[in-house]
Amino acid sequence: MPKGDNLFNENGKHIVQKFKEPEELRNKVEEYFRSCYKAEKDAEDQIFYTNIKPLTIQSLIYHLVGHKDTYYAYANGKFDEPDKCFSCIIAEARTRIEAWSAEALYTNRNQVGSIFNLKANYGWQDTQKVDMNHSGNIKISFNDDASEDKEDFQD
């Protein structure tokens, strides 16, 4: 009996294993990626592909299983067996979508959507490195004339 036969989400709803074989899942993943592109021919009759819709985890989930609980059950290995690695296929699909989003940072005019996707779904974050080490001399001086300035601030 596969591990997934007794899976339930946090609301007690049964999570159904939609794919019994990894190859079924792989075919559905490839179908999703093909649906995001349109094949066209150029003037020399060479085929090229145009991206017609963004690649997102959310649309992958909808295309594959329709619900995120089922998707995450696959992604987290809940349906994996010693000779059936469904989670490997999901990990590869996630990496392809992450790569597409990362490349969009360099090719699209408006990168905001890609930035949001990378932060929300892949753990990317803005970082700033501040070097607090100093290898020189620091001179701090105090002005003893501060008492003269006090008169200017009194009522």
What does this structure look like?
By secondary structure, the protein is mostly helical. The chain has a domain at 3-94. It contains six helices and two strands, in the order H-E-E-H-H-H-H-H. The protein has helices at 22-35, 57-64, 68-75, 86-107, 112-122, 146-150; strands spanning 37-41, 47-51. A two-stranded antiparallel sheet has the order 1-2. The longest helix has 22 residues, at 86-107. The termini are far apart.
Give the percentage of residues in beta strands.
Answer: 5-15%
Which residues form runs of ≥5 with pLDDT under 50? none
Number of E strands: 2
| Terminal-residue CA separation | 86 Å
Radius of gyration equals 27 Å
Jot down its keywords.
two-stranded antiparallel sheet; 155 residues; single chain
Please outline the helices and strands.
Elements: H1 22-35, E1 37-41, E2 47-51, H2 57-64, H3 68-75, H4 86-107, H5 112-122, H6 146-150
Antiparallel strand pairs: 1-2
Helix pairs in contact: 1-2, 1-4, 4-5
Short description:
The chain is mainly alpha-helical and about 160 residues long. It has a domain at about 5-95. The chain contains six helices and two strands.
